[in-house]
Amino acid sequence: MAVELQAVRGVGSGVLIVNADDWGRDHETTDRISACLLYGTVSSVSAMVFMEDSERAAALARERGIDAGLHLNFTTPLAASYCPPGVAERHRRIATYLRRHKFAQVVFHPGLTRSFEYVLAAQLEEFERLYGFRPERLDGHHHMHQCANILFAGLLPPGTIVRRNFSFERGEKSLLNRWYRRAVDRMLARRHDLVDYLFNLVPLEPDSRLQRIFSLARQFVVELEVHPANPCEYAFLTQGEMLRRLGDLAVARQFTQAPGQIAERRTRFNPY
């Protein structure tokens, strides 16, 4: 069983969670996300550890009560000067493999089993050191929390909220692609809680795409993944366009209603 994802408006209602990735990656990224939080267009953040701005970002989150989960990183170099050499070296081996070709993440690499375990455990421990609690919500940089070495070894802490695959309408992806994504989501749902739908903010056009997403959020738990480091996304989130398109639909103030609350809710799978 897992942490509850009931909408902040009440059980059974829809909710739009706008989650910003890469919190703490560098100063500019943290500052842009911080501006979106103050503007009210971002609900929560996914925090990177062992990165350039991880410590300052964590201090800001603690000071302002920002809802933070762990953004597991297996592909981008760990930039913090204080990162233990053993963690950095094992991370480098994993990143070299995962970035070798686009299908690497779906192939289990037995030779990297211990490296994945070590690096994941180190990031969990570092998040707890920085934020003062174990993360109840996890996702992955470039969605690599769904790679075969993580999934098949069951390395993600059970009972946590974990990011599902992107939701696509019939016809947007091949049948095989949608089947694989659905299979991964079912595997995740056995040990974790998932939102009903996940979408990326971009592309911003056509307008009908975002309106469809916002319409779903009136009935379902929808996560909208955003990257304010991207100039077009930052402008959309801070210059009024996001609020204009939302109309009377509110952005959730946080990702979870009550950290640690246990739910009987079963994830609803849908055709997207």
Q: Could you describe the 3D structure shown?
A:
The protein is α/β, with parallel strands linked by helices and 272 residues long. It has one domain (2-263): TIM Barrel. The chain is 37% helix and 14% strand. It has nine helices and nine strands. It has a seven-stranded parallel β-sheet. Helix 5 (148-151) links the parallel strand 5 and strand 6 (161-162). Helix 3 (85-98) crosses helix 4. It starts with a strand and ends in a 9-residue tail after the last strand.
Salient structural properties:
single chain; 272 residues; alpha/beta; TIM Barrel; 7-stranded parallel sheet; two-stranded antiparallel ribbon; 9 helices; 9 strands; 37% helix; globular; disordered C terminus
